[in-house]
């Protein structure tokens, strides 16, 4: 992603999002996936107390959103500054259907996913005609409108009061109302999402997406139906966001418009870029890093935004490809130097 | 609706729109020099407002307080470029944008640390007695804002057309590589763009503070509206930025005035909805260059 000459950098600027590094075809090895699944399953043995688990669940929920946003940004090259809206739609669908219609929580969750996807399909058709910063602004405007509706449409959403009276998810009569049960549900969903995302990347859709990102003209000439693929990825990312929103509602037991504003959209964007775009692991890593940093700084009161801003700037200046790739490059370089020193 | 009410809404709309136009112009300058959207633009406005409030409260004469605040934010713009954008100049556009997001969080934090979370008032530049204008009335501060914004726009326009530096900046906006080839120091133009954006943001903040008060997070909404105005007009086009700002401000004010009771909460939604409708009809903004692929 780092362009060696200024020329490439200036050309990238015309489109907004950067081109992928050639040859970056991250195929997920089953071994890594199994290892990750085992680590995730064993994590509660190490994490002591509800607070740590609560944090892990929050990271998992963010990771599900970020997986979708990463597909959209890192692979299809489309920036969304309104992703929080889809999370909000999913969360409110669960909360409203659960509290007003007393519907089965699972049905509420599924409705949230479906509704987010349908809204994305409807909004996406006109919106994805926009490019670069225009698309960023378009999605930002959409996110703002959805947020304002959440605050203002009090008959449906109860406005800033929020909704808390809805039943928790349950499996075979067992209510998922403790941190540990939510943890396993979210962890499993996250892993399925991870596998799905990496499958999409290595499928026909994924190849088409990368082609679109590298050169829309070339992809279009080769017969790729650009707008269809863009829309598909947009809908998938919205569906994942809606799913995360439903899980969020049941985890927090409470929804409120504040959680789904512009600030959250920006936070999601930061997770994708800080973790490292165009790598499914990087996305999850970014979600973890940003959530943990924000939580760690929260206790430090007044100066916490100052430190958060400084850390964010420093990471992006020194590791412009993100923590995941930047970090692994750094490790490789250190190991390489050591090997060289030993060899010489 | 009476015509005097309409005039009243137009006056506040144009005032607000002039502020958006200044912020949008700041976005356009940095976009033209670097291709990035500067998310710290709103924080320039905040710091300009808060610095002017503190200095004038400390007993400095109003013009000196405003100029000192604007000068401080101008320097801040240049420092941001020197400290965070220059070192990462080879990074991708999205990485640079995240750096400006980091800068905005940092500056907002600094503003809250120094000035606290409450909104602070500022004395108007010259009195608070409204001047009657037929059946409508206008505050002196409205006139100050319109006058200062107009003077700033005209000055910038003359500088861009007549001076060597202005021509060099415009050349960089058209084609950075070609500008560099004919010996224009493109890097210095980037720093100048950041400094000028700081100046425009700081000035916008200092002149709106007597009407809107100053608060550490005022820049979020103002920055977003300025970004929306820049996009509405066609990003990178200075005339588009001004047109977009005035249009957004006027429509927002009229929308708030004309909406039925109970619907005024949707005022911000109207502004964004109108912007979306325009973008759907014209995907590169009102005066934007044709679609680049």
Structure, explained:
The complex is a heterodimer of chains A (344) and B (293). By secondary structure, chain A is mainly alpha-helical. Chain A has a domain at 27-261. Helix content of chain A is 74%, strand content 1%. Chain A is built from 15 helices and two strands. Chain A has a two-stranded antiparallel sheet. In chain A, helix 4 (83-100) runs antiparallel to helix 5 (105-127), helix 4 (83-100) packs across helix 11 and helix 5 runs antiparallel to helix 11. Chain A starts with 5 loop residues before the first helix and ends with a helix. By secondary structure, chain B is mainly alpha-helical. Chain B has a domain at 24-124 and 137-223. Chain B is 73% helix and 2% strand. Chain B is globular.
Key terms:
A: 344 residues, mainly alpha, two-stranded antiparallel ribbon, 2 strands, 74% helix, globular, disordered N terminus, B: 293 residues, two-stranded antiparallel sheet, 11 helices
**What general outline of chain B do the C-alpha atoms trace?**
globular
Give the biggest beta sheet of chain B. Answer: 2 strands, antiparallel
Distance between the termini of chain A: 32 Å
In DSSP terms, counting alpha (H) and pi (I) runs of 4 or more, how many helices of chain B? 11
Helix content of chain B: over 70%
Lateral arrangement of strands in the main beta sheet of chain A = 1-2
**What integer value in Å does the Rg of chain A equal?**
20 Å
Give the averaged pLDDT of chain A, no decimals.
83
Strand content of chain B: under 5%
The quaternary state of the protein chains shown equals: heterodimer
Q: Can you tell me the residue ranges of chain A where pLDDT is under 50 for at least 5 consecutive residues?
A: 1-25
- What structural class is derived from the secondary structure elements of chain A? mainly alpha
């Amino acid at each position: 992603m780092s362009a060696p000459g200024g020329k490439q950098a200036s050309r990238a600027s015309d489109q907004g999002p950067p081109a992928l590094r050639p040859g970056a075809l991250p195929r997920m090895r089953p071994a890594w996936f199994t290892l990750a699944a085992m680590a995730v399953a064993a994590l509660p043995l190490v994490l002591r107390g509800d607070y740590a688990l609560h944090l892990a669940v929050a990271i998992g929920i963010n990771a599900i959103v970020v997986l979708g946003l990463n597909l959209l940004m890192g692979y299809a090259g489309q920036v969304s500054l309104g992703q929080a809206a889809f999370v909000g739609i999913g969360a409110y669908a669960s909360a409203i259907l659960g509290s007003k219609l007393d519907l089965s929580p699972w049905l509420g969750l599924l409705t949230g996913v479906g509704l987010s996807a349908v809204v994305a399909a409807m909004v996406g058709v006109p919106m994805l005609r926009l490019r670069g910063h225009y698309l960023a602004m378009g999605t930002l405007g959409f996110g703002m409108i959805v947020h304002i509706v959440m605050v203002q449409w009090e008959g449906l959403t109860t406005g800033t009061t929020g909704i808390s009276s809805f039943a928790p998810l349950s499996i075979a009569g067992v209510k998922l109302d403790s941190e540990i049960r939510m943890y396993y549900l979210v962890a499993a969903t996250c892993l399925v999402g991870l596998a799905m995302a990496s499958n999409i990347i290595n499928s026909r859709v994924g190849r088409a997406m990368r082609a679109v990102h590298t050169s829309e003209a070339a992809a279009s000439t080769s017969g790729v139906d650009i707008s269809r693929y863009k829309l598909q990825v947009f809908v998938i990312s919205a569906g994942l966001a809606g799913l995360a929103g439903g899980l969020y509602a049941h985890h927090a037991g409470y929804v409120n418009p504040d959680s789904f504003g512009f600030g959250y959209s920006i936070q999601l964007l930061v997770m994708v870029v800080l973790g490292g775009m165009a790598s499914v692991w990087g996305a999850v890593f970014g979600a973890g890093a940003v959530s943990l940093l924000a939580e760690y700084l929260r206790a430090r009161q007044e100066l916490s935004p100052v430190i958060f801003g400084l850390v964010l700037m420093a990471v992006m200046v020194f590791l412009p490809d993100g923590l995941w790739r930047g970090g692994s490059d750094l490790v490789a370089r250190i190991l390489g130097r050591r090997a060289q020193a030993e060899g010489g | 609706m009476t015509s005097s009410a309409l005039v009243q809404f137009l006056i506040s709309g144009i005032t607000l729109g002039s502020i958006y136009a200044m912020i949008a112009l700041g976005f356009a300058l940095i976009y033209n020099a670097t291709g990035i959207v500067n998310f710290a633009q709103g924080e320039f406005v905040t710091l300009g407002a808060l610095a002017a409030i503190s200095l004038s409260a400390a007993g400095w004469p109003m013009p000196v307080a405003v100029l000192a605040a604007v000068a401080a934010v101008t320097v801040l713009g240049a420092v941001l470029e020197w400290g965070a954008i220059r070192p990462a100049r080879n990074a991708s556009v999205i990485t640079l944008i995240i750096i400006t997001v980091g800068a905005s969080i940092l500056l907002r934090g600094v503003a809250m640390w120094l000035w606290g979370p409450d909104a602070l008032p500022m004395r108007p530049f010259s009195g608070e007695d409204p001047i009657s204008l037929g059946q409508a009335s206008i505050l002196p501060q409205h006139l100050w804002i319109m006058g200062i914004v107009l003077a700033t726009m005209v000055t910038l326009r003359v500088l861009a057309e007549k001076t060597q530096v202005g021509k060099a900046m415009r050349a960089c906006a058209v084609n950075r590589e070609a500008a560099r080839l004919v010996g224009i120091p493109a890097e210095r133009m980037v720093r100048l763009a950041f400094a000028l954006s700081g100046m425009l943001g700081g000035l916008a903040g200092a002149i709106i503070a007597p009407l809107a008060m100053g608060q550490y997070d005022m820049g979020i909404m103002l920055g977003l509206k300025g970004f929306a105005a820049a996009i509405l007009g066609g990003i990178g086009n200075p005339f588009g930025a001004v047109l977009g700002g005035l249009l957004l401000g006027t429509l927002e004010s009229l929308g708030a005035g004309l909406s039925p009771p109970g619907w005024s909460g949707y005022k911000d939604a109207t502004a964004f909805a109108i912007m979306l409708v325009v973008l759907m009809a014209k995907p590169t903004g009102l005066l934007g260059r044709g679609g680049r692929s």
